[in-house]
Amino acid sequence: MAGASTRSGMSAALTLIGKRFASSLLTLLLVSMTIFVIAQLLPGDAAQEALGQSATPEQVAALRHEMGLDRPAHVRYVSWLAGMVSGDPGQSLVANMPVSEVIAERLPNSLLLAALSALVAVPVALAIGIGSAMNRGGRIDRALNIVTLSMVAVPEFLVATIAVLIFSVKLRWLPSIAMASSDMGWGDYLRGVAMPILTLSVIVIAQMARMTRAAVIDQMDRPYVEMAVLKGVAPVRIVLRHIMPNAIAPIVNAMALSLSYLLGGAVIVETIFNYPGLASLMVNAVTSRDMPLLQACAMIFCAAYLILMLIADVTAILANPRLRAQ
Amino acid sequence: MSEALHVEVKGLTVTARNAAGEVFPIVSGIDFALKRGEVLALIGESGSGKTTIALTLLGHARPGATIAGGSIRVGEHDLTRLDRAALAQLRGNRIAYIAQSAASAFNPSRTIMDQVIEPALIHDLMPRAQAEAKAVELFRALALPFPDTIGARYPHQLSGGQLQRLMAAMALITDPELVILDEPTTALDVTTQIEVLRAFKAVVLERGATAIYVSHDLAVVAQMADQIVVLSQGRIREAGAAAQILHAPADDYTKTLMAAARPAIRPAPEKIALPAAPLLEIRGMTAGYGKIGKDGRPRIPVLRDINLTIERGATLGVIGESGSGKSTIARVIAGLLPPASGQVLLDGEALPPGLQGRSRDQFRRVQLVFQNADTALNPAHSVGRILARPLAFYHGLKGNAARMRVLELLDLIRLPATLIDRPIGGLSGGQKQRINLARALAADPQLILCDEVTSALDTVVGAAILELMAELRRELGITTMFISHDISTVRAICDDILVLYSGTMVETGPRTAFGVAPFHPYTDLLIGSVPEMRAGWLEESHAGAAPPPIGEISDHPDLCRFLPRCAARVDGLCNTTPPPRRPLTKGSQILCHHGDESLCPL
Amino acid sequence: MMASAFQRAKALPVSGKVGLALVIFWLAVAVFGPMLAPYPVGAFVAYDVFDGQSAKHWLGSDYLGRDVLSRLLSGARYTVGLAAAAALLASTTGTALALTAAVGGAKVDEPLSRFMDMLISIPSKIFSLVLVAAFGSSLGLLLLIAAFTYVPGNYRIARALAVNLAQMDYVQVARARGEGRFHIAIAEILPNMIHPLLADFGLRFVFIVLLLSGLSFLGLGVQPPDADLGSLVRENISGLGEGALAILAPAVAIATLTVGVNLLIDAIGFSGKGKGR
Ligand SMILES: Nc1ncnc2c1ncn2[C@@H]1O[C@H](COP(=O)(O)OP(=O)(O)OP(=O)(O)O)[C@@H](O)[C@H]1O
Ligand code: SF4
Ligand SMILES: [Mg+2]
Asked: Does the record bear Amino-acid biosynthesis in its keywords (chain B) (predicted)?
């Protein structure tokens, strides 16, 4: 009886996950439309702009044709989308090479930076979040609250500046400019990226820790926690065995949100430290109005965000017995 | 110190801190003692400090509160002197707790078995396998269904009554010497309550544990307790043996409590001599939630084939357990939920099904009064604004005229005029419920739909509201639909009664018909489940007997909905054929295969 | 009214008082700052670039030898003014749409919410970069872009609040009374959302300050000769290696502003939940 209900529950969960996946794909499609519309349709005529005011109408028309701008919007959208999906999002106007190549050079750097920062940030944030929740209202909690509250509101460039002041100006431990190239050894690489990692982590830790604390505290007020106390369960066991199974979904959600920040939100950190990542590439694309490159970068960031949120939601589905075993 | 005393509380004071940081007592000067194996009941209204005291017997105070003085001796320990670790050793081991709402006191993400045996495991009392075996044994003793597999389920897969019994299993797994039961049946329907009470009595009390039973319901307490302590505002009003408190209360407050617990039957006001045209009529109404399917039934059907009439000036009581669809009837009449089929006629004219298309006058004539005045009144508005809105909306009253009328209304509901500019937040529950009623009256309605207007209130306050409603009815001649889950209240104030079970009308008739047997089997269960205020009732009551076995149930959609729980079901009939609607000689109509003759022996 | 505001301020915890003081300070700077500037904003007044603190130049000089304090006092007006206007625009638009969705039934709510969900899945920095690339970054456009970027976040929170409130019994009573949707949205639902919405407004303001100064820092925000606090950081980025005061001062200025708002919201105690920056 119980077995049967669990099995059908599992398939219910799978259906739910399937639906969630489909909805992510749909959202991604809508996002691509939005980005396309904003980048390609609204700002006016790219050909006119490229040639300047002095161009003759014939010249403009010729360039429009060459750029494919004379085709109807939906045709251009579909061919762009097809290009994106097949890994060829077009030609970068500024770099004068395929967008895919430009991105292929930068994407691994970004992923590596994000991964290393996450490696530092996640454990620290979990420890701070859970620790301050357990100490709720106490000295440590209040102090951490003020610190993390301030850190989430501090601009990245202040964190970066202070880091530089301390570690390269005063202590002379680390270089103030990040260096990352493929021929570097791991030791040099890590020294080179320590500062960006530090800056990114500080900001992300604060965010994650706050959300983790909120998720844990939200559970702490539930009657089942009081019940556990009255059963004589020890505090650590209460957190690990009673609260965590219920708080895991919001915590993973917090992690996912913060990690998405590590990719797209790293714009400023990458720029400050001259780190050759995807976000700073996107800034260059904006400055030079290199629309194909810009659109491709934007789509990558949006896709990353959606994947992370998808992972968070799937975790939530799997962690919740209501959804898992209906 | 007497050896025989198992629990002894002396001069207990618990304090809390208010928003301004001042310390004030929540309970103070509490003394009581009980012998091993005795049951002591703590009784009082909400906020009187029952739960606070109960928790101190586990050495626990809720966040913000502190045990500030006195001693709490359980066996050889004084709980006020133990440190955290020592308390944790006792809790869930020698002293166990059964919480008010089992539905929220179980962890939603862990299986029942995990949680039930946890106390035994963390206190190292027995190995897992033995604990599980013992749990199954307890499940069986507590009359839970599927005792061998129920432990594998999650809390959301079980009903409130089942969870409450599982909570008892969790408490008893360690064979505690003291069990604290905090309103363990308050959240349950009466018909479920009786089953849980029986299980508790059989398992908790007869194992010889000492128990403290917290409740606001004197009749429930009468079944369980040897001693009763009556609390009010954090102090003991009266304490003594159960029989003495129940039959010869000395304190005035106890007397008021007793009086409020037994509502007086109010003589029906003389019907106004109008032509006996019904004010409200519902014909063949079916309603529910979700999309309406091809068969004309909504995806989640709630009400099936409802037919009723309310005479001008009369009060119709609608009674049924939680989820039976009582509120849904009111929502359909008010237009909040368009019915899937059927008609609602007001004064002979059909009301448009939903809100759209109703005229302002039609809106005015039907007014809705919700159960919980806390949520029914907008906390952002003042008393005056709430009452003035219907006056402006329906009658165009503005400025001074509106203010005069608001003052009149306040007077009508016996509230002081000074409340007019007060925000809703600061009022008491009873005051809010009066405002809630006055807002409906401000419209000058023909019909008011009262949905559980006294359920959220303490008995004494609730009784005063009922008194007020009876008066208003006499003065204004308003027609009322009175929705309640409490049969005694309905019997006390209504002219006609409709019993709803799972969205079908199982019995309808005049009030008098509900004073004499025979009843529809569900009505019988409902009436038989209401605890009486005397010891021994629980043992004598036949309500909630196990239904006789029956063969396979056919898939006819209109079979009797009560079949799974019916003690009078007939194999070969009830499980194959939909029941007919038939009159009983006492004056009511029932939906059942049984008639006058065959119901009598019940 | 004034008295009760004063009472409330007095009841705040220390962190809240600090926050309130910082907020008031920066509002005052935004209004009066340029009048107090010791030197003209664009004037080259110091002999040295990246001077440290001195009696003549309290915050030193910048990469061109201009007075940092004077530039900061004028930059603050851009940062505070633009962000406040954008946050106000984002909050009112988001809340108005949320109320429409809450009382408009599934036909309005579903497409609108779907659309907003889609927008919310474009990370805000990325979204604003695309918008800047497409439309440019005049002051007016920046305001619109910042507001537009944060409408979906406000909408999500306001809608959750409004949909919950729309289920409340008193709203059901109002519907059964025959009240129109507009009355229900404005008189019954909105007044009960004000506190969390104010907190959300504060949060949006912080996000927008960070967004706009980030854009300016990247050279995509406020364009010369105008300069907000982010632009000041950018101008002086060459001083980063030596940790110049000219770069530290505007960065600290932004931080005190945003941290102040955050501390204040937290102390008042109805912090909404945002998606973060
Ligand atoms: N909006 C809704 N959507 C789906 N189902 C609903 C909805 N509202 C109520 N129901 C279901 O309809 C049934 C009847 O609900 P209703 O509120 O009318 O019961 P009730 O008799 O008033 O119960 P109570 O005594 O608990 O107030 C229940 O099973 C409930 O779960
Ligand atoms: S019809 Fe049968 S099952 Fe239903 S109430 Fe009557 S006897 Fe019981
Ligand atoms: Mg109800």
From this structure: no
Task: Give the single-character DSSP code of B564.
Answer: G
Q: Confirm whether B564 is domain-assigned.
A: no
- Which is it for strands B504-510 and B589-591: parallel, antiparallel or unpaired? antiparallel
Contact B104 A223 (CB under 8 A): yes
β-pairing, B178-182 with B210-215?
parallel
- Give the ligand whose atoms come closest to the C-alpha of residue B599: 2
Determine whether the interchain pair C263/A30 forms a contact, defined as Cβ–Cβ distance below 8 Å.
no
Residue B141 — pLDDT band, cuts 50, 70, 90? confident
Of A30-44, A195-209, A246-260, B154-168, least confident by mean pLDDT is A30-44
Say whether residue C186 is in contact with chain B using an 8 A CB cutoff.
no
Task: CATH number of the domain at B355, please.
Answer: 3.40.50.300
Report the CATH superfamily, name and number, of domain C23-276.
Answer: MetI-like (1.10.3720.10)
Residue B545 and residue B562: Cα distance in Å, rounded? Answer: 14
**Nearest bound ligand to the CA of residue B318:** 1
Residue B579: inside a domain: no
Say which residue the tokens 């599980």 belong to: B132
Taking alpha carbons only, the member of B321, B304, B323 closest to residue B505 is: B304
In angstroms, the separation between the Cα of residue A219 and the nearest Cα of chain B is 10
> Can you tell me the distance from the alpha carbon of A310 to that of B272, in angstroms, rounded to the nearest whole number?
66
The predicted-structure confidence for B334-385, as pLDDT tens digits, reads as follows 999 999 999 999 988 899 988 888 999 999 999 999 888 888 999 999 999 9
Q: What residue spans of C12-138 are helical by DSSP H?
A: 14-36, 68-104, 106-120, 124-135
**Most ligand 2 atoms within 8 A of CB, residue of B304, B500, B559, B569 to mutate:** B569
A276: preceding bond cis by omega (within 30 degrees)? no
Structural domain for B411, as ranges: 280-514
State the Cα–Cα distance between residues A181 and B45, nearest whole angstrom: 74
- What is the structure's pLDDT at A310? 92
Residue corresponding to tokens 């973060």: C276
